[in-house]
Amino acid sequence: MRIYLGGHLNFYHPQKETWLEVKLLQPTPLKDVLEASGIPLGEVYLVVIEGELVDMQETIVSDQSEVKLFPPVGGGC
Known about the structure:
- The termini are far apart.
- This protein is mainly beta.
- Strand 4 (46-49) and strand 5 (52-53) form a beta hairpin.
- 9% of the residues lie in helices and 29% in strands.
- The chain is globular and about 30 Å long.
């Protein structure tokens, strides 16, 4: 599967890249994939699959999935 790491989330990629490739042998809860990949769940604010917002805690992904993750946005004055 492919995971897009938006914003500062690419910090958690071993090579600091925007896309993370993960091999899945069977459908797996997304939260388990993220934890195993070293991506802190508390850093993820939005999860998008096929253009739709999904609940990270309830979503099951497969090896063909493409998931986009985005952190909360902070701003200045």
